[in-house]
Structure formats: structure tokens, C-alpha cells
Amino acid sequence: MAPLQDVSIPLVQPASLKTPGCPTRCIRPVSKLGMFFLIFLYLLVQGTVAQAQTAFQEGEKFFLNNNPRAAIPLLEQATVQEPRNERIYLYLGIAYEQIGNYDQAIRVMKRGLEFALQYKDLLYFNLGNNHLAKGETETAIEMYTKALETNGSLADAFLNRANLEVKLDRLSDALKDYTSYLNLVPDSPQRPQIERMMALLKSILEDREAKRIAEEKRRKEEEEARRIAEERRRQEEEKRRQEEEARQKALLEAVLSSLKASTEGVGNLSAEKEDIREKRIETDIEE
């Protein structure tokens, strides 16, 4: 917070006032009533600035002393008086979170993000916490990710995101985030639990990989067996087709042979009839 600067209000001096017995450009004295008004106005302005600082300072004091209900109205007042002070929105959002008003906390922190610079990562992080409290897991992960995009050293965002990834069965991603967290906080008091979790995740992933390889092998063997069976069926069908074609061809040839033999018999019979007719003609002539 910038230190409060003195606010002084200069008296308005007319450019040219003529007063009896006073040379041109002489300044008319200010009346007692006018002086009282100016002093009142000065104190009013000073009091407004002091009140703005008091609202934030008092609200911050209650917030840091874990009294969110007393801090909230003062911090709400401070947002009106200092609308671009991002720390107010961070404190106010956390205070609403502490009393379980997650929707209001999200609303306040989103307002703070509109012009946040210094606390942008923490606003995203706490937005993630509030969405998580509402059961909005995917949105919470998205907020933790944005916090890490803003500040890649925000260890708690890695930890919270890893815990959610475990719940969503994204075990490989969770393992990476737990590793990143321990790299940033090697002396974390939670290190033993996290390392046990990481060992369990590795075991599960290795087991799943072994099952995947076995399943892939079984699938390929089944596909090969189906291919062999299909090839055998195709060959058998081709053999039956060829045998059927051979049978049909033999039958056609037999029918053709029979037809040829019948045609030759008909030719001989016609020749014999012709001989008989010629003999009959000859006999008729002799007679």
C-alpha cells in the first residue's frame, strides 16, 4: 500500500478584485464561513482516504487472525475504495472460502484476475480449491494448470493436481506431478506418504503394462488364428469350386459325346433311306 500523501486544497484567488482603499489585483479576505467550509472539505477528503486505508488494514488484520466473518465486510468495502488492489480480492476470496461460500469466493477471485499481476498464480490456485470444494474436478484441474502456467514453481498446485489425477485414474500424469512437487519441496513433511503413493502408482502402472502386453499378444494370436482359419476355409472353398467345375465340365463333355454319337446314327439312317429310294426308282423303270 502506497503511503498516504498529504492532500492540500489551495484557496481560489480571483484574478482581479477591486476593493475600496485597495489597489487593483488586491486579494479579498476569506470570510469565516468560507474558511470553515474549506476546512470541513479538507477534513472530509482526508477522512475518506484514511477510511479507505482503514477498511483494508482492518479487514487484513481480521483475515490474518483467522476471523473471516469480521474481515469480509471490511474487505468488500475496500474493493470499492481500492478496486485495483489485487491483494484485497485474494484475501476476500479466501475469507469466503473459509466460511463455505464457494460461489462468492469464485466470483471475487475472478474479478481480481481482471487486473492481477503479482498474485495471479495464487488467484488461480485458490479458484482451483473452490471448484474442488464444489466437486468440479475438471475445472479445478484447469485452474491448477493455469496457476502453474503462471508460476511453474507453485509446488502446492502440483500436489493438488496430482491428487485429483489419481481420483480420475490419470496415474501417469499424477506420478509426474508428485515428482515435480518433491523436486520443488524435497523436505516436505508429506514426503513419506507421497513416496508410498508413487511406489503404488508405479506398481499399478507396471501391472497394467504387463496386462496390456499380454492382452496385445493374445489379440494378435487370435487374429493370426482367425487369419489361418479364414485362409484354410478359403482354400477349401476354392478346392470345392474347382472340383465342382471339373465335375460340371466332365458332365458337359459326356453330354456332348452322346449328342455326337446320336448325330452319326441319324446320318447313316438317311443314307440307307436314299439307297432304298434309288433302288425303287430303278425297279419301276425296268417294269
Describe the structure.
The protein has helices at residues 32-64, 68-81, 86-98, 102-113, 120-133, 137-150, 155-167, 171-184, 191-286. The protein has 9 helices and no strands. The protein has a domain at 51-151: Tetratricopeptide repeat domain (Serine Threonine Protein Phosphatase 5, Tetratricopeptide repeat, Alpha Horseshoe), CATH 1.25.40. The protein is an all-alpha fold. Helix 5 (120-133) packs antiparallel against helix 6.
How would you summarize the topology of this molecule?
Blueprint: H1 32-64, H2 68-81, H3 86-98, H4 102-113, H5 120-133, H6 137-150, H7 155-167, H8 171-184, H9 191-286
Supply database-style keywords.
single chain; 287 residues; mainly alpha; Serine Threonine Protein Phosphatase 5, Tetratricopeptide repeat
Would you count the extended β strands for me? Answer: 0
> How would you classify the helix and strand content by structural class?
mainly alpha
Mean pLDDT: 81
The fraction of residues in strands falls at under 5%
Measured distance between first and last alpha carbons:
160 Å
Portion of residues within helices: over 70%
- SSE string, helices as H and strands as E: HHHHHHHHH
CATH superfamily (homologous) name of the domain at 51-151: Tetratricopeptide repeat domain
Name the CATH class of the domain at 51-151. Mainly Alpha
CATH architecture of the domain at 51-151: Alpha Horseshoe
Largest sheet: none
